[in-house]
Amino acid sequence: MVFAVVRAGGRQEKVEVGSVLTVNRVVADDEGNVTLPALLLVDGETVTSDADKLAKVTVTAEVLEDLRGPKIVIQKFKNKTGYKKRQGHRQELTRLKITDIK
């Protein structure tokens, strides 16, 4: 069993071939692929965490879709002053499918 820990969208994610994950918006190349940097590689009993060896490891992912997260409502209120503020936010997200780890 081969899996890797990659840096994707500001977080670290454990991935293996065929897994689908949702990360902060990333820009794909012309074919719709993204290369993610590996932080750790586990290949059976072998665990690789050396930076020089991990520089040769490539984790490629295919962009399935760009989407937006759920709406978050931000409200501020100060008592007796008449101050209230309401603001919304939706995070830009990308859904990726891991295609290859080598």
From TrEMBL:
Highest rank taxon of the organism: Bacteria
UniProt xrefs under InterPro entries: bL21-like, bL21-like_sf, Ribosomal_bL21, Ribosomal_bL21_CS
UniProt keywords, alphabetically: Ribonucleoprotein, Ribosomal protein, RNA-binding, rRNA-binding
GO cellular component: cytoplasm; ribonucleoprotein complex; ribosome
Entry's Gene Ontology BP terms: translation
Any one Pfam family match given in the protein's UniProt record, by short name: Ribosomal_L21p
Keyword Ribosomal protein: yes
UniProt keyword Zinc present: no
One annotated GO molecular function: structural constituent of ribosome
Family: Belongs to the bacterial ribosomal protein bL21 family.
Primary role: This protein binds to 23S rRNA in the presence of protein L20.
Subunit structure: Part of the 50S ribosomal subunit. Contacts protein L20.
NCBIfam families referenced in this protein's UniProt entry, alphabetically: L21 (TIGR00061)
HAMAP family: Ribosomal_bL21 (MF_01363)
Record's protein name: Large ribosomal subunit protein bL21
Organism: Pseudoclavibacter chungangensis
